[in-house]
Design brief:
The structure is a single chain. It is built from 3 helices and 10 strands. It is an alpha+beta fold and 143 residues long. The strands form 2 sheets. A 6-stranded mixed sheet has the order 1-3-2-6-5-8, covered by helices on one side. The protein has a 4-stranded mixed sheet with strand order 4-7-9-10, sandwiched between helices.
């Protein structure tokens, strides 16, 4: 989407996002509308979650995707992202729609968001002590 970003407080964002039919990410007061995903993106996400769910079965860790938000509060930063997938191992780090302190975060790259995933999000995720792995998946070519 090419809409101008919105500006609001954390509390305003949470109320706005709960009522919105579309997903938005929040970075320190700026709200960004998320674009729709391609069919390839959806297929990769589905396969990934199936594989993660099978791998993690029986353990304390659980995979999350699509509508699950990742809340990051690091220093003065307040950030809410929608990663393509993540793994959380502690039930106390999860609410109804939100995960905090995941061990794994996965983003499926697209032309419109890859620069954000490679730079902004990579730098942000490095500041989250619980994140052990950040995985980027290219949807247009395997490598």
């Amino acid at each position: 989407m090419t809409e101008e970003p919105l500006f609001m407080t954390w509390e305003q964002y949470l109320a706005f996002e709960e009522q919105s039919p579309y997903r938005h990410e929040y970075v320190n007061g700026t709200v960004y509308a998320m674009s729709g995903a391609s069919l390839a993106h959806n297929e990769i996400a589905q396969e990934l979650v199936v594989a993660l769910r099978a791998h993690l079965r029986g353990g304390p860790c659980k995979p999350f995707f699509l509508e699950a938000k990742l809340e990051i509060r690091a220093g003065r930063d307040q950030i809410m992202y929608y990663p393509d997938a993540m793994v959380s191992c502690r039930p106390e780090d999860r609410t109804e729609n939100t995960v905090r302190n995941p061990k794994l975060v996965v983003e499926i790259l697209s032309k419109s968001t890859q620069h954000i995933d490679r730079r902004e999000k990579a730098m942000t995720y490095q500041r989250v002590a619980s994140i052990e792995e950040y995985v980027l998946i290219a949807q247009n070519r395997p490598r």
